[in-house]
Amino acid sequence: MRPSATFIIDLQYPQHSPNPNPRQQHRNIAMSPLLLLLALAALSLLAHATYLVIYRLFFHPLRHFPGPKLAAATFWYEVYHDWFRGPYPGSSWNVDALHKRYGPIIRKTPDELSIQDPDYLDTFFAAGRRDRWSGQGKEATGSVQSTLLAADHKRRRGALTRFFSKRSLTRLEPEIVSKVQQLSARVDESFLRTRDILDAGVAFGALTLDTITEYCFDQSFGCLAKPDLGPEWRRTFWDMLESIPFLRNWTFFAEMFFWVPQIVVRYTNPGMEQFFIMQRANRAKVAQVTREWEADQVIKAAGGDPGKKRGSKRTIFYDMLDSAVLLPRDKTPKRMAEEAFGMVVAGGYTTGKAMANLMYHLHANPEWLERVHVELDSVMKGPDDPVTLAELQALPVLTACVKENLRISCIIADSIMLVEPNEPLFYKDWVIPPGTPIGMTLYHMHMDERIYPDPTAFRPERWLKAAETGQDLDKYFAPFSKGTRGCLGVNLANAQMYLGMGVILRRFNFELFDVVEERDVRTVRDCFVGLESPQSKGIRFKVVGKRE
């Protein structure tokens, strides 16, 4: 009879053998310290985690603030809502739900507070005093918008402010009009005559992307010259933005991304191919501007006038290199390229998205479209008549529609996190310790039914009535953020919206094509910028004719 395997082993290695196998004995002895180290490491991690939870719940300076205990105990609570909670992850919607349960001030993570009170906006955005908070204590990029320290932000923003002032936009207006004319010609040639379907997000994205790149580098990406208006860029922006819920919790993955071979990314995520193209284009354009600036310095040193050679037109990045305000570390090729990237993403996607949304809301509410047409006809007697930005901004109905669309469009969905590093802040009876990150979610401010009754509805009349009654709705209106931390390009964005919408709506008639608001328009995802459903087909139109 065959003995069992256990019996064989026992025969080979008897427990009381006076001469155990030396090799096996050596292996057992060698493994013991490794197992001991692993056990000690596990116990240390468990002890550290236990200590953190006890400290955060019972001894942390924020322990008295309301909110769920799990959010106070661990950052994994926010990670779960950012990345895993379905159907569409996004922590700002969870924060809104927590405010409804716990009140206007809550502890959203172990170290961070959130305030949801429109009357606190001015205190929150107090000019020049607030550092930005990244969650990881470091800048995601070197751009102005992601700069953490208030002093660095003030210096970098100051070097750019004049390019985006209302006075500068007056000089830039002819260039914006030229781009709008290009878009109008493309709508006529590629969509009206062919009866192809026009994606408004792609169309207005082409306008805004070409405008900002030409302004930055004196050379656009050329989207308006393409018959299809370059739809690949919208997909690229989507791919980048969809990664934000993950990357804002683990920024080191974002840094690793740039070290991954391009061919790997191309096959794992084909949409990001354009990202690398844009990165290379930004770096190349910054390098070109740098060479021009260095050549001009040689001419200056020789007593010449580089302006005669280069001409009077200067770009944003030439002036950054020429700035006496910026420090040498602000002018490195890496930081300049990151600044360019931030401008292109912010200026090339968000404004185009807002314009597409306005097209939808006007055509979904034809009574407002008709009123806008009446106003446009009053300042442009013929469809090809010239019009100025000032004339369009003076139209009350168009302005009310633009504002209501910005309120409801959710350009910024994420919480804006700022820090007062030196002094305590006060909210009602609460004392907020210095150095505490505080967040406010502007989209949910715009959805506050105490200020905006029926907040999810497109109701431009609220702005017209406010103008008649003297109600200051602008106090609670911050679609591009506010104060010194507000969007640098807000004037440029408004100019493109008024001129672009004014000219296109005056010249063409459109019909919505297979657009479902819940699928294609409504914001359901917090990717810093608010995004619609992944199943969205875009805000699409038939171009049915020209207006007389």
Automatic annotation (TrEMBL):
Keywords: Heme, Iron, Metal-binding, Monooxygenase, Oxidoreductase. One of its GO terms (molecular function) is heme binding. It comes from the Eukaryota. Its cofactor is heme. SUPFAM superfamilies: Cytochrome P450. InterPro entries: Cyt_P450 (IPR001128), Cyt_P450_CS (IPR017972), Cyt_P450_E_grp-I (IPR002401), Cyt_P450_sf (IPR036396), Cytochrome_P450_monoxygenase (IPR050121). Gene3D superfamilies: Cytochrome P450 (1.10.630.10). Pfam families: p450. GO terms for biological process: secondary metabolite biosynthetic process. The keyword Lipid biosynthesis does not apply. Heme binds at residue 487. Belongs to the cytochrome P450 family. This is Cytochrome P450.
